[in-house]
Please model this.
Amino acid sequence: MPEPTGVIHDIGYQRYTGPRLGRRDVFGALYVHGLRTVFGLGRTAKAKIFPWLVVGIVTLVAAGVTAVRSQIGQVVMTYAQFADAMSWLVIFFVAVAAPELVSRDLRSGVLPLYFSRPLPRSDYPLAKLLAMMTALWLLLGGPQLVMFLGAAFTTKEGMRGVWNELLDLLPGLLYAGLWAVVFASIGLLVASFTGKRAFAAGGIVAVFLMTAPVVGTLSIMPSQAVNELAFLASPSTLVSGVGTWALGDLLEPESQGGGLPIGDFGPVYALAAVVLVSACVALLLLRYRKVAAR
Model:
């Protein structure tokens, strides 16, 4: 009988004796990684160009508004108005960031690796969605903080002026949060249907921009009720409608037109925003339940 010729080498492998991380840690890691991905952190210099260009533009606008206000002593743009004015940039930011968050994973086929960990199927899209919402809120809220600091240091009313400025800032941050929630929900849902980033980006831009003509058409109809409800047809005007109802003069003073002409339908706009976000999140969870089942 021939003697065995195989040899077992001890190359130093040892059992893992460290802590076993669970669902919360996996969710947190996905969230942090998603937030870093949106801003290109930890990636190539090319991936950082667009997100930080947008950050630079919105910050520059905020600094310019602050400088003009300090010179003339009058409010040039409220915090809520700043969020409205920068919404067009947010659309393109979402169109680039959302495919980076989800389309790359769909195309590379790494989702089974994610779901092999103690990670419920719903946690993956929710972590990505939360990262997208946070990034958009920082994009709009960070420059508002620049505006606040500039106004606080130049106020002539002392602490009372700083306090009044803070009371104006908080609704602006909440309004920025509304933009972030609505835009992130729609953008991530659209991006989740394709692994090709170009198609995902085009679809996101189309959803936001191609609904604008619908608003224009409905707003010139002979019915006043239809005119006042026309802004429900586009995500951007839907958010502005909620802002007009909830913020009033903080968004658009009467001297500047008084905001969108939504009449008494403000609660309808608020309800529509809740339904839209809820539907997008539900469809996103359903989408990843089907992806995980493959």
Notes: The CA atoms of residues 68 and 76 lie 7 Å apart. The radius of gyration is 24 Å.
